[in-house]
């Protein structure tokens, strides 16, 4: 019987470069024909795929045999990565030439690459001894792979699958290069593909998918195995299919962290990005209020920390609290100073929005030993320049980075509202404090809410604003109140002169509302239940004199009394 050659079935040269684009042959989202009837059918095949099953290490069984949960899959995957590193060490000691990708170390941090690159040999017949390894997927020749397998790995069994090279080549750049590299071997009938026993089931599912565009498996662990093998053999459409199925399954903290811990080659694939994004969004939503889950968040791995603290909706007291928490996390997980500096320089530093930190905390950044001496001054200087900009310029800078994965200038939903402070030392200790509240923030105060400002300091004492919605003294209507409090508790006394003011239409200048003097003791506050002397409904009306472009502008001047 005559052996059919690839050109007899279809001319691979007719596949144009455009077919390799995201909308082309590899990974197209359009409806594709179902060739499931032809899978492993010699009548519709021009090649024979010999899948050589190599043993995993004694400690690692097939995922399908031992993984009943995401946690089992993660532990097994970790063992397989460690075992793979041991295999590489053996190969290097014997000076074998083999291009496996092992974990790379960048700036002291480990980024996981794929466990092992796909390798295939094409033979004239199953009994050929001298196998020629071709350049598959990259420019490295796996010259001694055959001898490596014979010397170090035992072939447990061989699966024979009848395949159609046009179908596989249309789905995978790996198989396309395998069948069309122009060498004599590319026209041979038999192809040998060595895989670990733990990959066998996933590979068969993958091959079936390349024909039928569907998978019979629906469990998370099996889908993860297929996803890994699909990445190994560059089948983008299957990676996208697995990613979609995994996104449709109920997400847990455990599964989200596992998805973010996949090898970097998998996570960087466009087909897997939606899954990674969904995992990040789940973690960001679950730990939105960090103060309620401090212990849990403190135990998260680095990928989980990045997902949580890159969120704009993070509910924290202030950006100072973000800085303090990440410093505590880094000291817990990276006890060595050199490693801690590296992780701040490459990963954690970009999570902190330094422009929204207080000046007192920025001073501490400059002297913090956990930051590289060259990085700390740069981030502090950038923060100070931002603070010096006009509000219009600040909003413009924040909008420019709206689509960036990590934002520096955009303000989060802080529990304590940011303030701007101008301090004077002479002729008397004095500060002018500005706080802005959006109309929506004021609306949320009704009927009995309150919002606090971040702390500011005068004469070594800490103060804060608190804005309220409550009933007036006669309890006849709701109104807007503003109070000034001192943080320190105990026998401390501190006397100040104060003045409250707010911008008002039509001039939009600050108009003084109340002034006076007060001697603070620890935990006490002074203020006015009805700052504007009007009911809440008038204050919040569309034609209110106090909201300018939807923002209420408040100011307080504090002077230390002699």
Task: Record keyword descriptors for this entry.
562 residues; alpha+beta; Potassium Channel Kv1.1, Chain A; 3 domains; six-stranded mixed beta sheet; six-stranded antiparallel beta sheet; 21 helices; elongated; disordered N terminus; SKP1/BTB/POZ_sf; BTB/POZ_dom; BTB domain-containing protein; POB1-like
What does this 3D model show about the protein?
With 562 residues, the chain is of the alpha+beta class. The chain has three domains: 34-56 and 153-284, Potassium Channel Kv1.1, Chain A; 288-414, no CATH class; 416-560, Sandwich (Apoptosis, Tumor Necrosis Factor Receptor Associated Protein 2, Chain A). It is 36% helix and 21% strand. The protein has helices spanning 6-9, 63-66, 70-93, 145-152, 165-171, 173-179, 200-212, 220-232, 236-248, 253-260, 264-267, 273-286, 294-298, 302-309, 319-333, 337-348, 359-367, 375-388, 391-400, 439-443, 536-539; strands at residues 47-54, 104-106, 109-111, 121-123, 132-133, 157-163, 190-196, 416-417, 420-424, 430-438, 450-453, 456-458, 461-471, 478-486, 493-504, 509-521, 525-528, 547-548, 551-560. The strands form four sheets. Strands 8, 11, 12, 13, 14 and 17 form a six-stranded mixed β-sheet that branches. Strands 9, 10, 15, 16, 18 and 19 form a six-stranded antiparallel β-sheet that branches. The N and C termini lie far apart (109 Å).
């Amino acid at each position: 019987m005559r052996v059919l050659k690839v050109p007899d079935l279809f001319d691979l040269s007719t596949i144009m470069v455009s077919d390799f684009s995201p909308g082309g042959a590899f990974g197209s989202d359009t409806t594709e024909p179902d060739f499931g009837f032809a899978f492993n059918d010699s009548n519709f095949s021009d090649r024979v795929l010999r899948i050589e099953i190599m043993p995993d290490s004694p400690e690692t069984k097939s995922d399908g045999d031992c993984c009943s949960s995401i946690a089992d899959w993660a532990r097994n995957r970790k063992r397989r990565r460690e075992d793979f590193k041991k295999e590489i060490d053996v190969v290097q000691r014997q000076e074998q030439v083999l291009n496996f990708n092992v974990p790379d170390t960048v700036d002291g941090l480990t980024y996981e690459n794929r466990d092992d690159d796909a390798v295939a040999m094409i033979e004239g017949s199953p009994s050929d001894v001298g196998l020629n390894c071709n350049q598959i997927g990259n420019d490295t020749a796996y010259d001694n792979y055959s001898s490596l397998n014979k010397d170090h790995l035992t072939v447990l069994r061989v699966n024979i699958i009848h395949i159609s090279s046009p179908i596989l080549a249309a789905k995978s750049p790996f198989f396309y290069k395998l069948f069309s590299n122009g060498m004599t071997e590319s026209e041979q009938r038999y192809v040998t593909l060595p895989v670990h026993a733990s990959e066998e089931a996933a590979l068969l599912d993958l091959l079936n998918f390349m024909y039928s565009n569907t998978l019979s498996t629906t469990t998370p662990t099996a889908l993860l195995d297929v996803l890994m093998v699909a990445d190994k053999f560059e089948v983008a459409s299957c990676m996208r299919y697995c990613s979609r199925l995994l996104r449709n399954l109920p997400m847990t903290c455990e599964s989200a962290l596992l998805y973010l811990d996949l090898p970097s080659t998998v996570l960087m694939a466009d087909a897997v990005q939606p899954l990674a994004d969904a995992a990040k969004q789940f973690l960001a939503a679950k730990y939105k209020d960090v103060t309620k889950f401090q212990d849990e968040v403190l135990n998260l791995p680095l990928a989980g920390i990045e997902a949580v603290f890159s969120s704009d909706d993070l509910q924290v007291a202030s950006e100072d609290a973000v800085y303090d928490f990440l410093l505590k996390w880094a000291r817990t997980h990276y006890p060595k100073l050199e490693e801690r500096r590296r992780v701040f320089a490459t990963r954690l530093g970009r999570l902190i929005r330094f422009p929204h930190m207080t000046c007192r905390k920025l001073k501490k950044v400059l002297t913090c030993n956990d930051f590289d001496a060259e990085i700390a001054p740069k981030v502090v200087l950038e923060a100070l320049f931002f603070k010096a900009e006009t509000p219009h310029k600040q909003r413009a800078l924040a909008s420019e980075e709206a689509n960036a994965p990590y934002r520096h200038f955009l303000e989060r939903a802080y529990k304590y509202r940011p303030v701007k402070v101008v301090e004077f030392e002479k002729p008397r200790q004095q500060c002018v404090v500005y706080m802005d509240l959006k109309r929506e923030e004021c609306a949320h105060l009704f009927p009995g809410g309150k919002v606090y400002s971040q702390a500011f300091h005068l004469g070594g004492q800490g103060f804060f604003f608190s804005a309220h919605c409550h009933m007036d003294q006669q309890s006849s209507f709701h109104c807007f109140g503003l109070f000034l409090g001192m943080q320190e508790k105990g026998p401390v006394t501190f006397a100040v002169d104060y003045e409250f003011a707010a911008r008002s239409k039509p001039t939009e200048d600050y108009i003084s509302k109340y002034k006076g003097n007060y001697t603070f003791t620890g935990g006490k506050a002074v203020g006015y239940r009805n700052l504007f002397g009007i009911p809440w409904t008038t204050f919040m009306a569309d034609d209110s004199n106090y909201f300018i472009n939807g923002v209420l502008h408040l100011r307080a001047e504090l002077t230390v009394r002699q």
